[in-house]
Write a structure and sequence with these properties.
about 400 residues; mainly alpha; about 0% strand; FluC; cell membrane; transmembrane helix; Chromosome condensation protein, CrcB
Length: about 400
């Protein structure tokens, strides 16, 4: 007995089901494409990095899974490959930290000179975050030149140009009315401290995004890099440039005339230890918990504590040289041990609740440290002369 042929209504219904299924699959494919494009616009793709990788949370996505096995430097396509990656990384960190702290002090000085209504430190924070955003967007291209260069630019220069400890000091000074006439209302002090916090956070986030957008306009390398002549000269330069600049700064501090010994000279001598220490602490602690960057948190907290201790010692200045040394510790070591630019990258990579918790805990911890160290002096009402630039 022959089977009945399907009716026209049943055939039409089957065709509609197939078309709906096909349209649904195409819609899902288009949505995945849009999501991937949006992700690329914000942060570069994550891929196994060479052994010269910067702290894991400076890759543009803070919530990273366990890091894959790293590619040996000899297998990474680059125009210049370091023969001794670790030596080159530390040398370039030293070099970048010196120029980062000089750029920060120069930017702050320009902000003071211009009599801007915005506190001068925000310009240094914005500049560092803008460069960091550009570096994050062009990370692959920078590493195609040479892998250690991204560590130099992101961790070394941007991390030293921006500072969390100095920002925390500015906030505490505003809360405590240290830079305002006696009798200023507590509400005014509270609003001043919160204004510094909000303006810095918003300006840094905005500057970072502008840097990402600028990086998108710069053409990328389309060809696979091949080694260029001059490998030996490049390797020697990258291994020696940091120690030589650091040695030059030390000689200037020791043997230079007195008028060449402002706090900037102390700062460039003490900046490299802070930057290198931050690099290693971040590498060891940031990987412990993808939901909270313990490495950056520890660096920012330690630097805030040391900064507060130096500010307390500066309450009774004994000599201009001593004040310059204390200021050098604050601007150099503490300024380069702490960072805003890395924190901005981490805040963007964490989930919403995690990013709020990370920032609030970091902010409260820094203020508590300043209160514990400087609180007794503030509550005593002592307004004796202090070193210039102290909190």
């Amino acid at each position: 007995m022959a089977h009945d042929e399907p009716s026209s209504d049943e055939a039409t219904l089957d065709d509609r089901r197939r078309r709906n299924t096909r349209d649904l699959e195409e819609g899902r494919h288009e949505q995945r494409g849009r999501d991937e494009k949006r992700s690329r616009d914000i942060t570069p793709s994550v891929e196994p990095r060479p052994a010269t990788e910067e702290p894991p949370l400076e890759t543009g996505t803070a919530s990273l899974p366990p890091r894959p096995k790293q590619i040996p430097p000899s297998e990474v396509p680059a125009y210049f490959k370091p023969s001794r990656p670790k030596v080159s990384v530390h040398s370039l960190l030293i070099f970048a930290a010196i120029w980062g702290v000089l750029a920060r002090l120069g930017t702050i000085w320009i902000g003071k000179f211009s009599s801007s209504t915005v506190f001068p430190l925000v310009w240094a924070q914005m500049t560092g975050c803008l460069v960091m955003g550009f570096a994050i967007r062009k990370k692959d291209d920078i590493e195609k030149i040479s892998p250690p260069l991204f560590v130099m630019l992101g961790t070394g220069f941007c991390g030293s140009l921006t500072t969390w400890s100095t920002l925390s000091s500015e906030i505490f000074s505003a809360f405590a009315n240290l830079k305002e006439p006696a009798g200023t209302s507590r509400f005014t002090a509270f609003m001043s401290g919160m204004s510094i916090t909000v303006i810095t956070l918003v300006a840094s986030l905005g500057a970072f995004q502008v840097g990402v957008h600028l990086g998108a306009f710069v053409p990328s390398f389309r060809k696979t890099p091949h080694q260029l002549p001059g490998q030996l000269a490049f390797n020697v330069t990258t291994m020696l440039i940091g120690p030589l600049f650091w040695l030059g700064a030390l000689f200037l501090l020791i043997f230079g005339p007195d008028y060449y010994r402002p706090r900037a000279t102390f700062a460039i001598v003490l900046a490299p230890p802070g930057a290198v220490l931050r690099y290693h602490i971040s590498r060891q602690l940031n990987r412990l918990n993808p939901k909270f960057p313990y490495g950056t948190f520890a660096c920012n907290s330690i630097s805030s504590l040391v900064f507060a201790i130096m500010a307390l010692l500066a309450r009774h200045p004994r000599s201009p040289l001593g004040c310059a040394a204390l200021g050098g510790v604050q601007d150099g070591f503490c300024g380069c041990l702490s960072t805003i630019s890395t924190m901005i990258v981490e805040l963007r990579g964490l989930k919403t609740g995690q990013s709020y918790r990370y920032f609030i805990v970091s902010w409260i911890t820094a203020q508590v440290l300043f209160v514990v160290v400087l609180g007794s002096w503030v509550w005593s009402g002592d307004r004796a002369p202090v070193c210039a630039g102290a909190a």
